[in-house]
Amino acid sequence: MTRALSVGVSRGLLETRMFLRERDAVVFTFLLPVMLLAIFGSIFDYELGETGVSFRQYFTAGMIATGIMSVTFVNLGVAIAVERDDGTLKRLYGTPMPRASYFVGKTVLALILAVLETAVLLGVGIALFGLEPPADPGRWLTFAWVFVLGVASCALLGIAMSSLPRSGRSASGVLNLPFLALQFISGVFFAFGQLPGWLQQIAALFPLKWMCQGLRSALLPDALLAAEPAGAWEHGRIALILGAWCVAGLALCALTFRWKGKADG
């Protein structure tokens, strides 16, 4: 286990260096969320009811959650599908490398990218939209556990979903479709309480809604509770649902992950 962890961490750091050398991937991964935040934050400049909270700040919290899901669920799922399609996974399977090291490496890559993405978006929100970092240790703790559970659940789901595309070429479309749909119903582009009830119920089944809510509770004042459908931050429910998705994602990985492409039998 120690060797698997050591090899996995080394592989994850190597993959991170390789990713950062790909200028197009870096620009798309980090610049696109910043552009969306800057554009929509500039357009939708209004207060949410009588809460005194600007929608721009609300939107920033949602975009941080979106950024986390993007670099875990989407990036991991697409990358693994491509590696399966081009035979990389098949070749790795035949090497002495412990199988667990591959997943440790991908987790390290996703965690590093999620930290960088979060730092960039948080910095933009503070610089442009008056967002304030958590004001006390309790809010920082909330921010930390929501971040960790969000990264873990979305990374596991990305690994599990990587087996769904029929080829590496179709992976981006297959993974981005549910990701984009969830953004519109999870309290990112629209205040969650303004959505129809049936959409709220659908969104509540998936991690992104709870990541957004958890990050709002850490970054925004309690005056916003007047705009939350439940009238409370529901930290216990957030932890329970994100934890359940971690367990479900792990089970799905065990059931669906394939080292070979469909053409390899």
From TrEMBL:
Pfam families recorded: ABC2_membrane
Assigned GO CC terms: ATP-binding cassette (ABC) transporter complex
Species name: Thermomonospora cellulosilytica
Organism domain of life: Bacteria
Keywords carried by this UniProt record: Antibiotic resistance, Cell membrane, Membrane, Transmembrane, Transmembrane helix, Transport
Ranges annotated as spanning the membrane: 25-46, 58-82, 103-128, 140-161, 173-192, 238-257
Subcellular localization(s) per the UniProt record: Cell membrane; Membrane
Bilayer topology term: Multi-pass membrane protein
Entry keyword annotation includes Transmembrane helix: yes
GO molecular function: ABC-type transporter activity
UniProt xrefs under PANTHER family: ABC-TYPE MULTIDRUG TRANSPORT SYSTEM, PERMEASE COMPONENT, NODULATION PROTEIN J
InterPro entries listed in its UniProt record: ABC2_TM (IPR013525), ABC2_TM_bact-type (IPR047817), ABC_2_transport (IPR000412), Nod_factor_ABC_transporter (IPR051784)
All copies of domain ABC transmembrane type-2, residue ranges: 24-260
Protein name: Transport permease protein
GO biological-process terms attached to the record: response to antibiotic
Family membership noted in the UniProt record: Belongs to the ABC-2 integral membrane protein family.
Record's keyword annotation contains Lipid metabolism: no
